[in-house]
Amino acid sequence: MLKNLDPALSADVLHALRSMGHGDSLVIADANFPSESIGRHTSAGRVLGMDNISAARAVHAVLSIMPLDTPLQASVGRMEVTSSQSELPEVQLEVQAVVDGAEGRATPMYGIERFAFYELSKKAYCILRTGERRFYGCFLLTKGVIPPTDL
């Protein structure tokens, strides 16, 4: 165990988050997402497991150490519900609350059509597969920067 680190962050996940640069994205995937087939296309080339936790719990752990991209552009995408793009299922509302809490302000997520989400996921740095079993528990997070301390 390490101090001040969320225990949901395994060594592999910590390595991936540290290796990512500004503008790189990662996928928080639910248990139904085709993680293995899409994960082969990512920069990491494999799926990292966070199998025993919910999507909201995974996002909370990641955002405890990873900055999101600037408020000038949307930095958290969500997979849209196929039959109703504007619908926000409970799992997405939970993640929205986690994102807002981590950022200390309202940080609206943007919708991504399901098949477009799959294509964007292939360009991600990595996929973090969760144990989330509710549908549409898939999110795309874009890494931001940490400014110098002397500014």
TrEMBL record:
This is Fucose-binding protein. It comes from Pararhizobium antarcticum. Coiled coil: none annotated. One of its GO terms (molecular function) is fucose binding. One of its GO terms (biological process) is fucose metabolic process. Keywords: Isomerase. It comes from the Bacteria. It holds the Pfam family RbsD_FucU. InterPro entries: RbsD-like_sf, RbsD/FucU_mutarotase, RbsD_FucU. It catalyses: beta-D-ribopyranose = beta-D-ribofuranose; alpha-L-fucose = beta-L-fucose. The lineage of its organism: Bacteria, Pseudomonadati, Pseudomonadota, Alphaproteobacteria, Hyphomicrobiales.
